[in-house]
Amino acid sequence: MTQKDITFVADFLTEHFNEAPDLYNRKGKYFNVERVGQYLKDEDDDLVSPPNTEGNQWFNFLKNSTHLKESPLLFPYYPEKSLHFVKRKMEGVIDQCLQKPADVIGKSVHQAVCMSLYKISKSEDSTPQLFKLPFLWNDKTSNIHYVLFTMLENSISKIHILRRHTDTSRSVSNGILAVEFGNFLNNSISESSDSRCYSCLDAHFYDDETVTVVLKESVEQEGRERVLAQLPLS
């Protein structure tokens, strides 16, 4: 150890572990705790060694700002409390903010339609993931909601399109349909159906009338093609 290291440790011990008679009435040890550790204690008690905020630019800025000083948008500062205490206070405020919207939205949502997409055996221990996360699109011109999704395993070459009117009392034709890609990129009908079979990697709406899909060759070999296709929704 260098003399600088020894001096650093000695200063640390002198500052934080000297006796503090003013703390004798407090529970715990009769010396200052390490200044960082006190912030991490999950207690509601005041800090033993609260920070010195004198000269802090943020506090000076708030103090000199007429509009921000009493602003309800700023989270209050608790200089005497640990981070655990502040975290619990903040979580309480956030929960309170979210409760009202959750109640209103929850009461306004209801089931419009129920469709059975697939069935699985109840005896299976783990449910396989057959439904790939959908992509949503809202056509404001026609007031129609679209959901694009794929079903894994037996139908990887298909994308499914679900259509619902924003007015739940109205229905649309072809409420749900599937588009199969298969070997549609083959140059001729004489090509083997297995030679150029494609499956869907991803699908998104490009605009109200066009769907963009990313396809890949299903054949397990090096250099498999990837195709970016723009398909008219019609």
TrEMBL record:
<dbReference type="GO" id="GO:0051301">
    <property type="term" value="P:cell division"/>
</dbReference>
<keyword id="KW-0132">Cell division</keyword>
<keyword id="KW-0498">Mitosis</keyword>
<keyword id="KW-0833">Ubl conjugation pathway</keyword>
<dbReference type="GO" id="GO:0031145">
    <property type="term" value="P:anaphase-promoting complex-dependent catabolic process"/>
</dbReference>
<dbReference type="GO" id="GO:0034399">
    <property type="term" value="C:nuclear periphery"/>
</dbReference>
<dbReference type="InterPro" id="IPR056358">
    <property type="entry name" value="APC4_C"/>
</dbReference>
<dbReference type="GO" id="GO:0070979">
    <property type="term" value="P:protein K11-linked ubiquitination"/>
</dbReference>
<keyword id="KW-0131">Cell cycle</keyword>
<dbReference type="GO" id="GO:0005680">
    <property type="term" value="C:anaphase-promoting complex"/>
</dbReference>
<protein>
    <submittedName>
        <fullName>APC4 protein</fullName>
    </submittedName>
</protein>
<feature type="domain" description="Anaphase-promoting complex subunit 4 C-terminal half WD40">
    <location>
        <begin position="136"/>
        <end position="234"/>
    </location>
</feature>
<dbReference type="Pfam" id="PF23405">
    <property type="entry name" value="WD40_APC4_C-half"/>
</dbReference>
<dbReference type="InterPro" id="IPR024789">
    <property type="entry name" value="APC4"/>
</dbReference>
